[in-house]
Amino acid sequence: TSSGAGGGGGGGxxxxxxxxxxxxPQQAAPPPxxxxxxxxxxxxxxxxxxxxxxxxxxxxxxxxxxxxRQREAESSAGAxxxxxxxxxxxxxxxxxxxxxxxxxxxxEIPAEYRLVVKLGxxxxxxxxxxxxxxxxxxxxxxxxxxxxxxxxxxxxxxVSLLVCIILVPCSYLCWFRPLYKAFKNDSSFNFFFFFxxxxxxxxxxxxxxxxxxxxxxxxxxxxAATLKVKxxxxxxxxxxxxxxxxxxxxxxxxxxxxxxxxxxxxxxxAKARQELSQGVAANETVRSAAAGAATxxxxxxxxxxxxxxxxxx
Length: 313
Prior knowledge:
It is a multi-pass membrane protein. The chain contains ten helices and no strands. By secondary structure, it is an all-alpha fold. It has a domain at 111-282.
């Protein structure tokens, strides 16, 4: 009984115990005061500057998208048979031969590349005009040369005519058109073709500016020799030699500038090979020739097999 009472008393004591009695609730420590860091203090001027940059980038993206849509629409129209007629070279209507190419920098070349393509076109024009001036210079050289050098100077004049007739159209077709199509279609193959042929032209210009006889150009060598015979003609030939030299420098600067754009555009030799293989595979003439060759080979094998079987049995 005593034990039970004690247990009951102990239970009563435990039941009356309040652990929260005479105690204060614990409060969490307040967080440290917030201080703005230097990076978070953005002034209104900085916000306005960033807003202007975002708006400028947005306008640039919209402009590029509009140009891309325009080029795609023109390509679709060309595929549908409404392609613009050829406009280059600009020949008169009475000429029996019409223009051979369509050339429009504003419609076919992206805005960021128009300047370099136009620079290449102007260099081609300067090169063509200089070849015409070179003909006048070699004619002057032929006129003022003594009779003992008549054959040499006459050969220089004749070769200058031939060089002008060949190089003017070939330079347009071989390096300017690849440059134009490289930026028009973002073509690695045309980039490589341009680099190869413009290097050949630079070598030709170096030879021309030297003025070696029998090669059809007024240069430093034959110009210096003509100074002793006729001062005016010699000075004229030296001016032509200087122009050839300047044209070499301009072509080197052009190839450097185009190469920088080429390196930044993601073009590569592997991409050029892929474009070449795709172009060959898509060419109907090549496909027909390959199919005809395969058919002929198979027919020859079949006839040979049949002839061998007949002879055996």
